[in-house]
Amino acid sequence: MQDTRGGAIPSTGAEAFGEALLDRYGRYINPGWARLFRFVGLTSVEWEAEGAIVRDRAGKEYIDCSAGYAVMNMGHRHPRIVAAVEEQLGRLPQSLRLLLDEPVVELAELLARVTPGDLRCSFFCHSGTEAVEAALKLARAYTGKMHVISTHRGFHGKTLGSLAATGSDTYRSVLSPLLVGVSHVPFGDAEAIEAAITPETAAVILEPIQGEAGVIIPPDDYLPRVREICDDRGVLLILDEVQTGMGRTGRLFACEHQGVAPDLMTLAKALGGGVMPVGAVVGRAEIFEKVFDENPFLHTVTQGGSPLAAVAAKAAIEVCLEEDLPGQAAEKGAYLLNRLREMQARFPRVLADVRGRGLLIGLEMTKPGAGGLFVTEVFDRGLIVTPSLNKWDIMRISPPLVIPRDLLDRALEIIEETLEKVDQAIDDL
Ligand code: PLP
Asked: 144 C-alpha to center of ligand 1: Å?
């Protein structure tokens, strides 16, 4: 094994190397995070990845069933996305913002073509939380109204504006008061949204499927009914597809399952193809026209939608379409869900519920302790799943959409072996 800077690290020293790196994380980045990772025994150091396989510094291989919290939908280092970024890197990675920038226009045109309804204009940034900030500002500036309705347990990011929309006290309590005028209603209940609308309401914001809350799928008539209510009451509908977009749930965007188009859609995570961080809010032209005609600089970020990010995102969308990643997600997701439901029937003391759409799947454990043991045990066996860090009883399975069937089968074997082990230990957890 080679050191990142060329020096050899004996493979027997990999654990000590990981421990030392975790110490430095704790010292220089985030002490609480380092403590948590040490507590659950996650000390492997990531090294390289391709497709749905990740290798650590010691050369151990893992099947990636997390895609880095639903970022690498196209697989790690998809050759076409890497090639697009390398080509741009060799010429002009960043825009001067005073000459015209072709890649960002090409990306915006493509987004206008592939997003539902009459979404046409895009604002680009780097992350999901920034995309939500931009959507909230657009909604306020367009309507002249300042109130927003969001949902309990919805997740929209952690900067101060988006955090106001996020419906979890875990992240909010020590920071309140946040943005005024944001109220939360139960997810899946369209009539609760209708009841919460006032003359001051600018927009409703929600995820088509709540991801961070543990893969919560609303009733099929929820989105169409919310769309109807927003239209009747003159309120904008913002759909946050940061996690569900880019093929993850079996359609390019999850709102397409119900044939609903929002007024503003937020994207990030997999939009950058797992190679570059990119966020976007895509909206109806009249919203952008009104807001930016009045003041073109009302909302800007210096480096958002850089040429590097734009070529990565354009290639990512093209890969999604040409390789039919939504179709792959639908087919592989249905297979996975069936097999996991069989396991739920065998291990009811461990698995309280199995749910999902496409390759966004939630495993709800009967106890947080079962979740903790599950995640470390699958990890030891070479499988990466995503725990909900604040809700250890719900694990997410969200592999790259390109994951081949043999790796899915191996992942299922590991999950089954692990469930057996957790089942034996369940009374003591
Ligand atoms: N919106 C949704 C639906 C998300 O799932 C997330 C992140 O998990 C965000 C927004 C925030 O995105 P980011 O972490 O890129 O800021």
From this structure: 26
Q: What residue ranges define each of the domains in the chain, with the CATH number in brackets?
A: 44-74+324-428 (3.90.1150.10), 79-322 (3.40.640.10)
* Phi, then psi, of 386 in degrees rounded to 5: -105, 115
Residue-wise pLDDT for 27-78, tens only, equals 999 999 999 899 888 899 999 999 999 999 999 999 999 999 999 999 999 9
Give the residues of the chain that fall short of pLDDT 70.
1-12, 389-390
pTM above 0.90, yes or no: yes
- Please tell me what DSSP assigns to residue 270: G
User: What are the angstrom distances between the C-alpha of 313 and each of 37, 74, 185, 251?
Assistant: 32, 11, 33, 17
Rounded Cα gap, residues 2 and 12, in angstroms: 13
Residues with beta carbon inside 6 Å of ligand 1? 69, 127-129, 132, 155-157, 207, 211-212, 240, 242-243, 268
Q: Which atom of ligand 1 is nearest to the CA of 210?
A: 3
Instruction: Of 260, 285, 215, give the one whose Cα is nearest residue 70.
Output: 215
